[in-house]
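Hello,

I think I submitted the S-adenosylmethionine job twice by accident. Can you confirm which output corresponds to this input? Input:
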Amino acid sequence: MSGKLSDKQRLRIQTRHKVSIQNYGYQPQALFWSNQEIQELRFQKLLEFLPDYIQVGGQEMWSLLDVGCGFADFYRYFQRHDLTPDYTGIDLSPDMVAGALALSKNLNIQVGELADFDYADNQFDFVMLSGALNEVVETEIEGTLSEQGNYAKSVISKMYQISKFGIAFNLLDRRYAWHQSRPDLQSFYPDEMLEFCQSFADEVVLIEGYLENDFTLYLTKTERSA
Ligand SMILES: C[S@@+](CC[C@H](N)C(=O)[O-])C[C@H]1O[C@@H](n2cnc3c(N)ncnc32)[C@H](O)[C@@H]1O
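Support: Only one job matched these inputs. Its output is below.
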């Protein structure tokens, strides 16, 4: 299962985002979200993964890695909910990272995909991802759906490995007709991803029904494996 993009795939994603920023500026549309409400509904579902002792009061110090952070809007969303994680963001697009740093100067944000970084096991309390696995990155014409999703699966496994308490992420839902008109977008069957995550994670929860084209997975580490 390959965890690294080819140069060609990297360049394609970087170019797509360069053009989208030129077209829309630092707006959710440049991230390929239809609007801020849709973007933040996804954030809300990720935030709900955090244990109550963090969500209520928010005084605990905790670290978060945001994979494919875009403009780091997730960080500002946390701030608006009185939460201030020790935040690290990574994103494949240098233009996105430049945008994130223009919007929030002192954040720790770096250019790259997850496999570019040498993070230690259990390094971050939580690792989250919103929308960064929506690109089709494999091109095998005869590949099955699960083969096409191998990159996403390798990223998810790695996220789990470097998290202390667990991970939360969303994916596009393949059960609806919309995906037939968007062959450029990678989508998944929720049950298949649930089964994949259950093959290595201690506890897995599937969250659906909040948007027609999206679902969220929570993978929690128990004390034994953390
Ligand atoms: C749909 S946008 C979401 C951005 C942000 N998470 C948000 O919700 O506001 C996806 C982001 O993931 C980045 N991205 C795409 N593929 C990536 C990968 N393999 N590794 C890291 N970042 C990636 C893109 O550059 C883009 O900024």
